[in-house]
Amino acid sequence: MPLSPEQLAEIDALRAHPQPTLRATVPGMEAHLYKAQPVLDHGFVRVIDYMGDDSAICQAARVSYGKGTKSVQNDEGLIRYLMRHWHSTPFEMCEIKLHVKLPVFVARQWIRHRTANVNEYSARYSILDREFYIPEPDALAAQSVINNQGRGETLQGAEAARVLEILKSDSNRAYDHYEAMILDEGQLGLARELARMNLPANIYTQWYWKVDLHNLFHFLRLRADAHAQYEIRVYADAICEMIKDWVPAAYAAFEDYRMTGAQLSGKGVECLRRMLKGEKVTQETSGMSKGEWREFMSVID
Amino acid sequence: MPLSPEQLAEIDALRAHPQPTLRATVPGMEAHLYKAQPVLDHGFVRVIDYMGDDSAICQAARVSYGKGTKSVQNDEGLIRYLMRHWHSTPFEMCEIKLHVKLPVFVARQWIRHRTANVNEYSARYSILDREFYIPEPDALAAQSVINNQGRGETLQGAEAARVLEILKSDSNRAYDHYEAMILDEGQLGLARELARMNLPANIYTQWYWKVDLHNLFHFLRLRADAHAQYEIRVYADAICEMIKDWVPAAYAAFEDYRMTGAQLSGKGVECLRRMLKGEKVTQETSGMSKGEWREFMSVID
Amino acid sequence: MPLSPEQLAEIDALRAHPQPTLRATVPGMEAHLYKAQPVLDHGFVRVIDYMGDDSAICQAARVSYGKGTKSVQNDEGLIRYLMRHWHSTPFEMCEIKLHVKLPVFVARQWIRHRTANVNEYSARYSILDREFYIPEPDALAAQSVINNQGRGETLQGAEAARVLEILKSDSNRAYDHYEAMILDEGQLGLARELARMNLPANIYTQWYWKVDLHNLFHFLRLRADAHAQYEIRVYADAICEMIKDWVPAAYAAFEDYRMTGAQLSGKGVECLRRMLKGEKVTQETSGMSKGEWREFMSVID
Amino acid sequence: MPLSPEQLAEIDALRAHPQPTLRATVPGMEAHLYKAQPVLDHGFVRVIDYMGDDSAICQAARVSYGKGTKSVQNDEGLIRYLMRHWHSTPFEMCEIKLHVKLPVFVARQWIRHRTANVNEYSARYSILDREFYIPEPDALAAQSVINNQGRGETLQGAEAARVLEILKSDSNRAYDHYEAMILDEGQLGLARELARMNLPANIYTQWYWKVDLHNLFHFLRLRADAHAQYEIRVYADAICEMIKDWVPAAYAAFEDYRMTGAQLSGKGVECLRRMLKGEKVTQETSGMSKGEWREFMSVID
Question: Fewest Cβ atoms closer than 10 Å to its Cβ: which of B215, C31, C46, C87?
């Protein structure tokens, strides 16, 4: 269980005293506030704060004095139009702040999204906890044989057992030694900023992460995608569930235009037109490479 | 008066229905919400939304589960420490959204601050209003004779009158012609995106502007400064008044370390040490240029 | 002609003395360096500097010690793969610096692209030249009757003449008064930072603009597009011509995947699959709005 | 030695064929190009490309057609003025691209500087090398007893030996197991993206990092500072040596105004003025906290 009783008490305290506000408020999001949504074996995502709602997107797009448009239905139409035409700035007018606990190797991918604000737990200043990501057996994937950057079958039997044993024992030994180096018992004790270098990349860290909705959608498009590494995808999936409750119209437009849609090349559009006129097009007559053709066929078939 | 009765009614509607929220809430900021604070002759600044408070800065700095520190006094100490040591990321955890009405030449300076989100009223899509900035007589400054980028004395008498007459009549003529070009009465009417090019830089525009507290402080340091152009400084000053009511501890630290403090060069520090030991230092013996010496003396004298 | 003999002499001086360098160098781009490519009536774009080439994109993608891949053909394949899969960071490893002269209303659109570096000619410090954008007759478009943010037919005869006359005379009067306000002849002279507010948005300004290739492609996708305002599109078109000579493989991939390709929604993909199976799909049975359907049909037809 | 003969041959090939260019070129920087400057036990920094020079800063500040100012001396004066008055945009007109090999825990600090372009070696796609940072004995610092985020004395004798032994043996065991998990010999082999999670934070990674001069100075101010962790400071120091050879005037201004200078608070300025008038000021009469007073005294004494 990722949270201590003391931490749960702090969360309860934050949820105990609603205050009146004149700001845009979303009941569905209030229900999420501060609660930890478990991800992986020790991780979580929890919403700390949010700014704006679907209506705030329209309000900014129109630079209006009051709310955005006259009705929820008009808001939806406008939001779909903005998403379809890549008018990204109105979506930047919504902001969300998350507290995330995640393995270091996931954090290293995540931080590559630069247009966000981050405060990470400092291992120079503080001592990290003994918490490591150990995959579930069905997440123990082999290297893909067709894609250098991906996963293939799941490891079985003795091989799976050996891998799990390595991960567990190496994590624990590394942490034992980390503790032994920083604890002093009559010795000086190595500086924390140095001792942490012995810790493996499956140790958990945590941070506050704040991002606007446009950049969050960009993150989700790449990280909730089938090509993303499973261990970051589960965080993206958990965030998607929250966003649905926060800005349902914007999320629906995002899903239609970004997640379930497709990007075609000029060559792809050309092939499509020929096909729709009844021509039989093959990879050889398409002008595409084999890789492009395979991806194109997966869209239309 | 910058707001129409219809606009005021929209603002009243937004202020009429407080909702319960679990988010960090600041009563002093709630009092500002949606209200237009007048700036210049037709401009205003109004707060549309905010995220976070002083405590949220500490909460992020500590990556904590509950509030930041145990007491308001501890929060203040931590905030001063963060500001003094340029730990900027915790201040990025607060966010504010403003609706600003401002002359185009002010907007052109303002937009140079890139780390912010902006939605501007579209003159491709909509027709601009007939509202121009005409300076008050005491803002009619002459070109500085000692600083190429600054103001000197105030224009007087006939010269002042002539300048005001030019600004008023040219603005109105430009707007008359703008209207004449876009209105069709039996003609096609010039596209709005073209007709707007006839309008001078003192016409008012408006935008939604969203920024985090760290970047807002950077904006205020440069734009609430004595060297900033008066017409943008009055906006920065109006924003300062709101920020005091939002994050009083952070604002106090900003004021002490950024606004009333000073940046010394290595040469300046060296001179200071010599002076404090009783040596008489002059520009000639300081190693500084005349400009640097003048600025140095204005700090210590 | 936009350049004075003195300016041309400065450009010739910069082109007179090639220096040896070990950096990635592109002969096609060297031919462009410093020369002004005319755009509109007084504007131009000229390349001041560039960093990287097609090979540098691959070098960064592979984090290699030497060049990117073994052959130009491999470079092309890798670049197409990166573009297709939205791997944007290798394209950020190329950088270009441009000097652009452009009307203020174009500059105001351009500056909305925030991930770039800009130094603009200062009208607080310096006096602007008497140069205004006056459209060619065939660019005098009427407001579109079907799209609020666009152009329709071209103005003709008396209406066109009247518009041109307004633009010319208002520009000149505004500049006469600008000069009259700042020149002193026995008077103080209004500060430049104030006097400029009388100048209309068709006056020319200029800036140095530096951007990486990924963000430049984003700019070009939006601004070289048919929906962009004509007056910024001609700048984007002129830049496209330069980029072709700089990074031909990256530009070809950009053209195929971004410029001539299409983004389909999930609904669009669904319709397409039904159509390819021989079903007759109409707007009514597509689940799309009329606007979406019209845009969808323009892709496939 | 960090580079293999094959890598050195690739570097020699890049240095073998100077090309003529019309771009701003700096002989002192050409001498650095592609060569690896060793840092720590297996790391390095090497310059891959650069854009601009001291003159380019002035050229952009003046938005000029040719070079920046008439003389090197004028360039220096202008650059000092720009640095003193926080006119940061002209410094953004210079750009540098580095190839850096560095331990992962250093990379994690480094990446927090968001305004830069990065391509990191992919441990999803490729297999990492067996190279770990093992500190020199004099870098084996104890935790500071006065500053939670810092180092104190150096570990000695048995304690030092024990720490080094732990770091070495844990690194090697982790790598042995990493190899064992991914190599298949009759088994599937764990996916690389998973196996890497067993590797500790002292393993070396590498990346291409591209940044403009303004943001590089900001990085250097924080990371070449005495409060930065030693292991990132040595990289910053190595970069400083390169920058001196690239933009000597800008670097000298940076050193004077940012590195050897000091930031005083409003309270600090007030105390200083009292001191210079002969008053004896103590912490008690200064209005500062003990921490602030200690830092203030270290500036002036």
Answer: C31
Dump pLDDT digits (tens) for A19-34. 999 999 999 999 999 9
- All residues of chain D having their beta carbon less than 8 Å from the beta carbon of residue B252 are none
Residue B71 pLDDT > 80: no
The answer to whether the beta carbons of residues B47 and B34 sit under 8 Å apart is: yes
C-alpha dist (Å) from residue D291 to B59, B90, B108, D295: 22, 20, 41, 6
Contacts of A88 in chain B (CB under 8 A): none
In the predicted model, is pLDDT for residue A1 greater than 60?
Answer: no
In 3D space, the residue among B84, B55, B57, B59 whose CA is nearest the CA of residue B72 turns out to be: B55
For A56, phi then psi, to 5°, come to -65, -30
pLDDT value at position D172?
Answer: 97
Specify the DSSP element, H or E, that contains D37. Answer: strand D37-39
Which whole number is the average pLDDT over A72-87? 92
Q: What is the pLDDT of residue C1?
A: 53
- What does each C-alpha distance from A191 to A180, D184, D272 come to in angstroms? 12, 39, 36
Asked if the Cβ–Cβ distance from B119 to A89 is below 8 Å, we say: yes
- Give CA D281 to chain center in angstroms: 38
Three-state DSSP class for A262? Answer: strand
Q: Please answer whether residues B133 and B107 qualify as being in contact, where contact means their C-beta atoms are separated by less than 8 angstroms.
A: no
pLDDT digits (tens, 9 = 90+) for A117-161: 999 999 998 999 999 999 999 999 998 877 777 788 899 989 999
CB contacts, 8 Å: B259 with chain D: 266
* C288/D contact by beta carbon, under 8 A: no
Note the CATH architecture for domain D5-133+202-259.
Answer: 2-Layer Sandwich (3.30)
Distance CA C4, CA C279 (A): 64
Residues of chain D with pLDDT under 50: none
Closest in B81, B257, B267 to D256, CB measured: B267
Among C203, C200, C241, smallest CA distance to C220 is for C241
CA-based Rg of chain B, rounded to a whole angstrom? 24
C59 touching D (Cβ < 8 Å): yes
Q: Check pLDDT > 80 for residue B150.
A: no
SS3 assignment, position A154: strand
Q: Using one digit for the tens of pLDDT, what is the confidence trace for D81-100? A: 999 999 999 999 999 999 99
For the stretch C239-287, pLDDT in tens is 999 999 999 999 999 999 999 999 999 999 999 999 999 999 999 999 9
How big is the A-D interface in CB pairs under 8 Å? Answer: 150
**Domain definitions of chain B by residue range:** 5-133+202-259, 136-201, 266-300
Q: Which residues of chain C have pLDDT under 50?
A: none
Predicted pLDDT at C71: 77
**Which value does ipTM take for this structure?**
0.94
Structure confidence by residue, pLDDT tens digits, B112-126 = 999 999 999 999 989
- Inform me whether the C-beta atom of residue C294 falls under 8 Å from chain A C-beta atoms: no
The gap from C-alpha B160 to its chain's centroid, in whole angstroms, comes to: 27
pLDDT at position C73: 79
The three state secondary structure string of chain B is CCCCHHHHHHHHHHHCCCEEECCCCCHHHHCCCCCCEEECCCEEEEEEEEECCHHHHHHHHHCCCCCCCCCHHHHHHHHHHHHHCCCCHHHHHCEEEEEEEEEHHHHHHHCCCCCCEEEECCCCCCCCCCCECCCCHHHCEEECCCCCCCEEEECCHHHHHHHHHHHHHHHHHHHHHHHHHHCCCCCCCECHHHHHHHCECCEEEEEEEEEEHHHHHHHHHHHCCCCCCHHHHHHHHHHHHHHHHHCHHHHHHHHHHHHCCEEECHHHHHHHHHHHCCCCCCHHHHCCCHHHHHHHHHHHC
- CATH architecture for segment(s) C5-133+204-259: 2-Layer Sandwich (3.30)
